[in-house]
Amino acid sequence: MVNLDLVVVGAGTAGCMAARTAAKAGLSVCLIDYKDAKSIGDKVCGDAIGKHHFDNLGLSYPRGEELERIIMGIKVYSPDMETVFKLSSEELHGFIVNRWVFGQRLLREALDAGASLLDLTQALEPIVEGGFVRGVIARDRRTGSRVEIRGRVTVDASGYAAVLRRRLPPEMEIETSINKRDEVLCYREIRILKSEVDEPEFCQIYLDLEAAPGGYYWIFPKRDNCVNVGLGVAAVGGFPNPREQLYKFVLSKRIFEDSRLIHGGGGVVPTRRPLDSFVGNGIVVIGDAACHVNPIHGGGIGPSMMAGKIAGEVISSVLEKSEPSVENLWPINVRYMKTYGAKQASLDVFRIFLQSLTNEDINYGMKYKLIMEEDVLKAGMEGDVRLNITDATRRIFIGLGRISFLRKLYNMARKSKAIKKMYENYPQSPNEMQEWRIKVREIFGSG
Ligand SMILES: Cc1cc2nc3c(=O)[nH]c(=O)nc-3n(C[C@H](O)[C@H](O)[C@H](O)COP(=O)(O)OP(=O)(O)OC[C@H]3O[C@@H](n4cnc5c(N)ncnc54)[C@H](O)[C@@H]3O)c2cc1C
Questions:
Q1: Could you tell which of 17, 31, 34 is best to mutate to test the pocket of ligand 1, judged by most ligand atoms within 8 Å of the CB?
Q2: What is the dihedral of CA 7, 8, 9, 15, to 10 degrees?
Q3: How close is the Cα of 43 to the center of ligand 1, in Å?
Q4: Which of 37, 359, 372, 446 is the one with CA 20 to 30 A from 313?
Q5: CATH (residue range 2-61+99-179+272-343)
Q6: pTM for this predicted structure
Q7: Confidence tier at 378 by pLDDT (50, 70, 90)
């Protein structure tokens, strides 16, 4: 039995950042991961991260083997391929990383700060005593034996598995399950093409609901002729298999002729607003486990690290002077909601709207620029969905018999603004949660 200040389950981007921050502040921290130390960071991903995340977190930029490509922007293609939004600004500068090397760097930084690592250790369930989480019961994968790892605070950073969150008792008031329709199933491959893609400093995103219902497919350029190509579909109704869709609609394109497969694999992304609350007595949930992902593009590396840093800072200041009760850990919720959660929630409204459209709607919307390129950028960065509906476009849409589409668009923009405000005014204490929750549900439920 081990007794620590902080036990972090999962040495992914969220867990490493939480461990690094807390260890730097002087806490005794143990990271535990299912994988062996050498495989940590090896995750099926699109490998893209915005530069601003490195700036905000004080992380050095990727370089050497870790850096696959510097990115200057994104090209978004309409389903009929007739309209391309070419988005490029300082805010969209970023990197395509070698995900494994990047993950190993984050792990090393956590260990260098003083955290320890129990690898090949599978967390099974939280230890709950006296209304507090006091650590985890785990299985040592080398010996098969059960171990107890105790800590004053436990962080669930186990990604989509959310191994602790799913087993929390209801009195913790943390959602234990999330709706399938808020998940996107992805399949991606790393391939070497015969030649480099055009404009390799741009990531390519294709909106095509026939190929990727409720999601999109992407081509992200890596080093030289290598690309990361993938497709995600919303887990709604009888959704198709993303691997089959990728082969049928994307890998059949001419640029993939005679390309060589390096690696293929799948994964699930929770693409919704954050959990209403991700702290309880002795427990904090971060990263994919808490739905800290951009609902529009599914990017979760940046927000998961942000949540890890906030969690590490608040936990260390709480443990200095008091017990890790839900009230004392609450500032983790407040800080995350105000920085990223508000944007995430407003983009969740946009995501639900987009998932209700047809290819035709998207073709028209992009062709007539109902949202301008710079406003798409603003929406992506800040969560502000601004419309560009002029008298001329209104007349065109009336002529096309599509005025109800404009009405839906107005409604979405109004809702997204209202929800952003709610999250910016997130309750300062758990006592005010019930009222806030009711109001949020009302806005999401309204037509
Ligand atoms: C196909 C795909 C493409 C994506 N593309 C991008 C992209 O381009 N850019 C971007 O920003 N985001 C992308 N994402 C999302 C991003 O990968 C995640 O949001 C991010 O990695 C979340 O980090 P995390 O630390 O919460 O979880 P993870 O990185 O998943 O880490 C969880 C860790 O927990 C460990 N673990 C799990 N269960 C247990 C257990 N029982 N016991 C012990 N350890 C356990 C795992 O081994 C793992 O190391 C993509 C996701 C997918 C699936």
A1: 34
A2: 180
A3: 6
A4: 37
A5: 3.50.50.60
A6: 0.95
A7: low
